[in-house]
Design goal:
Helix content: 25-40%
Oligomer: single chain
Number of strands: 6
Order of helices and strands: EHEHEHHEHEEH
Distance between the termini: 61 Å
Strand content: 15-25%
Number of helices: 6
Shape: globular
């Protein structure tokens, strides 16, 4: 039997897919380290509050984060005061990546700044980390399983830049070759509709991509998140250990 969906539809669900608010991977000693425990900056917290205002009219059934501090904090701020159930889906965590401070500038550009451009190449991976193929094979089954659950119709899912790109490429059927088309600014939201009929996902649609209430027009926002991380990494002297 078809599950209830959004008003006037057959089994349609809506996902507000967010990227967590701004964080800084720059340590006091000058190293760039992709810590799983990095927390939101003050700006990141403000981005989440602005998203809370934007999404205030949306009747969420469920909120999801990936278990990492930055996604949990974002989800809690967005849903603050609403009494919406919040849960963790660990499989949606960001792609694993190693440190970049030992890499030359050329390798940083090739493997990190432009890493998504080569995601479809056999064996392609982030520096010292997970392959893009393994990352996709972790994300997509978890997301499809989530979509097929009968306990929600409208949900907010707070993920990561890479995670969201994989999901958006799945929606458009672009595969790994389509990842680089989906930039995800800090604290952004994507709006996805999916029809689930008799337990089968039969339609996927995008309603909005990379929407940032703090700068909807993207005025003077020209760098990607990866480019901003690399710019910060290069702006200060490297540690003596390097």
């Amino acid at each position: 039997m078809t599950q209830p969906g959004l008003p006037g539809t057959r089994g349609r669900k809506r996902v507000y897919l967010m990227r967590h608010g701004e964080v800084s991977y720059r340590r006091p000693d000058g190293r760039t380290v992709f810590s799983k425990q990095v927390a939101l900056t003050q700006e990141g917290e403000e981005q989440a509050r602005q998203m809370r205002e934007l999404l205030a009219p949306v009747p969420f059934d469920l909120g999801v984060h990936t278990g990492l501090t930055r996604t949990r904090q974002t989800a809690e701020l967005v849903l603050e005061g609403r009494g919406v159930r919040l849960e963790e889906i660990e499989a949606l965590r960001e792609i694993e990546a190693g440190p970049i401070e030992h890499l030359s500038d050329q390798r940083i550009d090739a493997e990190f700044t432009y890493g998504l451009e080569r995601a479809a190449e056999p064996g392609a991976a982030f520096p010292g980390g997970e392959s893009f193929a393994a990352f996709r094979d972790r994300i997509i089954p978890a997301f499809e399983s989530f979509l097929q659950r009968p306990d929600w119709t409208t949900a907010v899912v707070v993920g990561h830049g890479g995670t969201n790109a994989v999901i958006l490429a799945w929606v458009t059927r672009g595969g790994l070759a389509g990842l680089s088309a989906f930039e995800q600014d800090a604290g952004c939201v994507n709006i996805i509709d999916v029809d689930v009929i008799d337990g089968e996902i039969v339609r996927r649609m995008i309603r909005g991509v990379n929407l940032t209430p703090y700068n909807l027009a993207k005025h003077e926002h020209y760098l990607t998140v990866a480019e901003r991380i690399v710019a910060g990494h290069r702006a200060k002297p490297r540690s003596r250990e390097e």
